[in-house]
Structure formats: C-alpha cells, structure tokens
Specification:
The complex is a heterodimer of chains A (353) and B (185). Chain A is α+β, with helices and mostly antiparallel strands. Chain A has two domains: 25-200, Immunoglobulin-like (Sandwich), CATH 2.60.40; 208-352, no CATH class. Chain A contains eleven helices and 16 strands. Chain A has helices at 11-16, 34-43, 61-65, 68-76, 115-124, 169-174, 232-241, 250-257, 262-269, 275-289, 312-317; strands at residues 80-86, 90-99, 103-112, 133-137, 149-155, 158-166, 179-185, 196-200, 208-211, 217-221, 224-228, 242-246, 297-303, 324-331, 341-346, 349-352. Chain A has a five-stranded antiparallel beta sheet with strand order 1-2-3-6-5. A five-stranded antiparallel beta sheet of chain A has the order 9-10-11-14-13. In chain A, strands 4-7-8 form a three-stranded antiparallel beta sheet, with helices on one face. In chain A, strand 15 (341-346) and strand 16 form a beta hairpin. The longest helix of chain A has 15 residues, at 275-289. Chain B has 185 residues and is mainly alpha-helical. Helix content of chain B is 69%, strand content 0%. Chain B contains eight helices and no strands. Chain B has helices spanning 3-11, 16-37, 40-57, 66-89, 116-131, 134-144, 150-156, 161-181. The radius of gyration of chain B is 18 Å and the shape is globular. The termini of chain B are far apart. The chains are: A alpha+beta (353), B mainly alpha (185). At the A-B interface, helix 1, strand 5 and strand 13 of A face helix 1, helix 2, helix 3, helix 4 and helix 5 of B.
Chain lengths: 353, 185
C-alpha cells in the first residue's frame, strides 16, 4: 500500500491552495430568472390538465415526517395547503407550512409525472440523502441566502421534502411580508427546473414567548421550543435544566402522540433531566421507523447571514466570524396542543405563561 | 453557515447537518474527488460516502475546519477508489497519481497513519511547506494534495508547462534534501 506524505499537511495549507474553479457535477445548472419567479407569483400554481393527472398512493410529507395522527391534526386545524406547481417531469405539492414566532417548517411532496421523473425517484431511493437543494428567492427572483435547510427522502413513488428555517434578522430584512419563493433543484439533473412556488411563512401557530429573569428568551409553540442563550456554556447548561410544565394529562397526551409508552418514559425520566429527556424519547420514537422524522433539535450557533470562510490565521486562533447567537431547540416530533403546557422551567426559575 | 453551526448539528444528531455540509462543501468535495477520479458519478459517490463517514465520526471528532476535514476524507476515499479501480483493470500500463511522485520521500518503515515518529515528521514537513514562497507552496499543494494536472497548473498560474514541471521538480528535490538532512531518508 502506497503511503501518502501529503496526508500530513496542515489544514491551513489545504485551504490556502484551494483551486478557485470548482467542478459542479451535473450537466445543467439550475437557473431561475426574475420572470420565472414573477410568473409563478402571478399565476399562482397552475392546475394540471386532465391528461396529466396521475393518481398516487404515496403519503403526504406531513405524515412521512410526523405520523398519521399528527397529519390528521394538521388537517383538522386547517393547516393543509395542497398547492401544486409542476413541469413536465414533476408535480410538487406544497402540503403545509407550520410556522411559529421563531421558526418554520415547510412540507412538500414531489411526485414524478413521466418516466424520467420516475427513474429519478427510483434512483433516489437507493441513497440516504437524495441530491436535492433549495434556492430561496425574493419576489423579484433574486436569490437570497436565508440559512434554510432542506432534507428529502425518497418514499415509494415520490420525494418527501422538508424545508426548515428560523426568523433570522436576515430573513426579516429580505422578506418583510414573509412570502418566501423557493425552487428545489438537483445538481445531478434538470428535472425539477422551473418549478417555483411561494410559501407564506407568517406565523400560523400559537406561540408563547417568555423571558427569564436573566434575560433569556424562550419561544414555545405546538411544534417545539427554542431558547436563545447568552453563550455556549449557558446554553448547553440549559439542556439539563429546561423543561415544560404540563396541564394534567398533557404530558401523557404528548407521549401518546409519538407512541412512547409509560415504561419508556419512566426509563428516561428517572435518569435524565430537562430537554435531555425530550431528546432521548425522540430518539426512541425516531428509532422505530421514522428515519429521524422532523429532527430532534440541539444546541446550535446561528450567525446572521453567511459570515464567510475563516482565514487560516482565524482558524488557528479559533476566531468566530459574524455576529451570532446560541440557540437550544427542541422539536416535539408531533404537533401538541400548546394549551396542554402551562409554562417553562429554566434553571431554578419557573416561568408561567 | 459557519462550520461550528454545522458541527453542532452533527453533534446534536440532526440530519440537517448532512444537508448543510453538502450544501456548503459538496461542490468543494466533488472537485477534490473529481481531480482524482475524473468521473462525476464516482465523485458523487465519494461525496456521499464522505458525508456518511463524517456523520459517523462527529462526534466524537470536532474538526477545526469542517471543509478541510471533509476534503481529507473525500480525498482519501477517492484515492482508495482510484487504486481499487486501477487494480481491477489488471493492466500492464499502471496509471499513477501525482502523489506517486512523492512516494520515495516517505521514510521506509514508517507508518504515516500510526507511528509516533510520524508526528515529528508531520511537524518537519509542515515547517518545510511553510518555508516555501507562497506561490511555490500553492503550486506544490495543488499538485500533490488537490492532484491538479500540470496543464491545469500552467493555466492557473500563467506559466508554461515546462516551468511548472521544473518548479515542482526543484521543490521535490529541496524536500528530499531537507528530509535527508533531518535523518528521515
């Protein structure tokens, strides 16, 4: 086995010598013009012609990332949108937007309309992470980086897509009316090209916002909660000392929504405090067949906008770029009735709503 | 998105980490792999494997630069794939990589990945690379880490191919002298 001397070189020399021209795999790149975005905005989302209608048995992405019970709750609360946009290969359905005062989730399903689309989905089933990306756009079609995330999963004959994001300062500045235009694209193929749709991310979930005595802001809503920390250490400490207080029976209803038994609950609640418990029971829930579902949350450092890659010198000194904040997030993995919760305990402080 | 944030996503076991890492550094990693494999399909597979390997290694790993970390993993996977494919061909015409030009500079009997002595060699090597003039250093790293062809280097640095070759030869000779002086060769 030949040995590679260059394995030993420092990161700073690797980053310094990065070639500027990069290979972007795929023959065609996604392009969107201002006109395309404007057309989508004006026409809304066109109805399929009768000839193109195909019936699918695939589950909506809300059910895929949550479960059937939560899907029914979303529907019963009038949160299903079911707007469609399409080209000749795919029909993309905007299933639902769940948005609170801090974050939002956008559920989409892409269903193939022809053999090429079908082949793409079939290929995507063989990979854990289908090659799908998201471009977020202003109304005039200009691309804007908002720090949104996208995940996709090929299921049966379609792609279940989840877009997540937070209401950063950058987002508020770029989208004052909370209308986010989006285009899903693949670097491998142009089959999703020209599908643009608009999601209204105005808050549609009841959100409770409380502030602790030491100024920590906490947002709680039916989909989860977020604690805006002061620094990494304080925020990480909050994992063990922050939890909800529930109305009688509320906690049981929540656990029932994600299929956690009393025995499983006891196993974790006896040893784990705070949201650590949430993370563990969600792990238990997702380990069944959910393939991580909507996610669990965690402690993250969010910057306002893209701060750029650090220079080798900054890297060496561990200097962070850009203004940012530490946030601890918790997903419920389902949609709870926020009125089942009565307040939040943070550290030694009980903060009622 | 800043490295620390993506690493925090890996550490919190959020699959957003993989999406974000791919979005942020997917193109970079594909380029690293493509320079070695010259195949888009193989490069894409390398990227997927690298993301999976990263998912499995963070935590406990906490790299200072996620970009360099992903790049290293992708590069190693691409080299392995290249060697495997080349071996499968069973051809008498062996195809080599630029790093093979450095093969005789690896001290015999030293395991780069595990030997304690390797840490000292690493320090010396980085000292040597750091002492090179910036452009020479970049050309050296682009040739032997990024595996760019001499033609590409000539185009990028506005030099003739022969000048690039000559410069690389001189740098290799200097490295050989240096390692010999330090007692490695």
């Amino acid at each position: 086995m030949k040995q590679d001397l260059m394995e030993m070189i420092d990161d700073k020399y690797i980053l310094e010598a990065e070639p500027n021209e990069q290979i972007k795999s795929g023959k065609r790149k996604f392009r969107i013009s201002a006109a395309a975005a404007a057309i989508a905005a004006c026409t809304g989302l066109m109805a399929l012609t009768a000839a193109a209608v195909v019936h699918y048995n695939s589950r909506p992405s809300t059910e895929e990332y949550y479960n059937s019970k939560t899907d029914r709750i979303i529907e019963s609360q009038g949160l299903k949108i079911n707007e469609k946009s399409y080209n000749s290969h795919f029909e993309v359905t905007l299933e639902s937007v769940l948005a609170d005062d801090y974050s939002f989730k956008i559920f989409l399903t892409a269903r193939p309309l022809d053999a090429k689309g079908k082949e793409y989905v079939e290929q995507a089933t063989s990979t854990m992470f289908p090659d799908l990306h998201l471009k977020t756009l202003k109304e005039n079609g200009d691309e804007v980086r908002l720090g949104t995330g996208i995940r996709a999963r090929a299921v049966d004959d379609s792609l279940a897509i989840l877009v997540t994001g937070v209401r950063s300062k950058e987002l508020k500045d770029a989208l004052p009316d909370n209308k986010m235009y989006m285009a899903i694209y693949s670097e491998e193929s142009n089959l999703l090209e020209s599908i643009v749709f608009c999601a209204d991310i105005n808050p549609n979930l009841e959100t409770r916002c409380v502030t602790s005595k030491d100024g920590i802001k906490i947002y709680a809503s039916p989909i989860g909660f977020a604690l805006i920390g002061k620094d990494q250490q304080t925020t990480e400490k909050a994992v063990k000392s922050t939890f909800f207080t529930w109305k009688e029976g509320g906690r049981e209803r929540f656990l029932d929504s994600i299929g956690i038994t009393a025995e499983q609950d006891k196993k974790y609640s006896s040893k784990n405090r705070g949201v650590e418990w949430n993370y563990l029971i969600l792990g238990e829930y997702y380990s069944k067949d959910m393939n991580y579902g909507v996610g669990g949350g965690g402690v993250c450092f969010y910057t306002e906008g893209y701060a750029g890659d650090p220079t080798p010198e900054e890297l060496e000194k561990g200097i962070r770029r850009g203004y940012g904040e530490y946030v601890m997030t918790v997903d419920f993995g389902c949609v709870v009735d926020i009125n089942d919760t009565t307040g939040i305990v943070y550290g030694n402080e009980t903060i009622p709503y | 998105m800043e490295d620390e944030r993506i690493i925090a996503l890996f550490e919190s076991r959020s699959t957003d980490a993989v999406d974000e890492a791919s979005r942020q550094y997917g193109t970079y990693c594909r380029t690293v792999a493509y320079n070695i494999l010259l195949s888009e399909e193989d490069s894409e597979e390398c990227l997927n494997d690298a993301l999976l390997r990263t998912w499995n290694s963070i935590p406990p790993e906490h790299p200072a630069s996620l970009k360099a970390y992903l790049g290293r993993i992708t590069r190693n996977l691409a080299i392995d794939r290249f060697r495997r494919k080349n071996a499968e061909k069973r051809s008498s015409d062996t195809v080599s990589l630029p790093i093979d030009e450095l093969a005789d500079l690896v001290p015999s009997g030293l395991n780069i990945e595990s030997d304690i002595d390797a840490a000292e060699l690493k320090e010396k090597l980085n000292g040597f690379i750091g002492s090179l003039e910036r452009e020479k250093r970049i050309i050296f790293v682009q040739r032997y880490w990024y595996m760019l062809s001499v033609e590409e280097l000539a185009r990028k640095h506005h030099m003739s191919k022969s000048k690039i070759k000559m410069q690389l030869l001189r740098t290799r000779s200097l490295l050989r002298e240096y390692l010999t002086k330090e007692g490695y060769l």
